[in-house]
Design goal:
single chain, 141 residues, alpha/beta, five-stranded mixed β-sheet, 8 helices, globular
């Protein structure tokens, strides 16, 4: 199953608090085209990521802070390796939404990691959220 990110919403926040089962998935399935901006940073093109952050309504200071935070995560991962118990498991829903961990997934993909353990949680879906998830799939998979 190819996972895609979804917008922040009450159902997503609730799902992230749920217990889940640990399952191994292909890293490539976690990184849809919606993660391309994360891959830009890893390839040394942080300006595109900053521009994206600005396009979402963040101020220049907020956008730069987001880029610095991502760079800091990448440096920590490069130094210590990916440790789910330290950084948290990448979290996905049973229906194919990537709820948390797109930065970590992009980093793992760039490092050539083929599979990773993720936390799979149940998520309540409204018709609007189902529509959004399908739109994301059409746009990015």
């Amino acid at each position: 199953m190819k996972y895609v990110g979804i917008k922040s919403c009450p159902q997503k926040r609730k799902a992230l608090k749920r217990e889940g089962k640990i399952q191994v998935v292909a890293v490539a399935d976690l990184v849809a085209r919606d993660c391309s901006r994360h891959l830009y940073v890893l390839a040394g093109y942080g300006r595109e990521y900053t521009d994206y952050q600005l396009s979402t309504g963040k101020t220049p200071v907020e956008a730069e802070k987001k880029v610095r935070s991502y760079n800091k995560l990448c440096m920590a991962l490069a130094t210590r390796g990916y440790q789910p118990e330290k950084y948290g498991y990448i979290t996905v829903s049973e229906n194919g939404a990537r709820l948390d961990g797109s930065h970590r997934a992009a980093w793992l993909l760039c490092r050539g990691v083929k599979e990773v353990e993720v936390r799979v949680v149940p998520m309540d879906m409204t018709p609007e959220l189902e529509k959004h998830l399908e739109e994301q799939r059409r746009a990015y998979c």
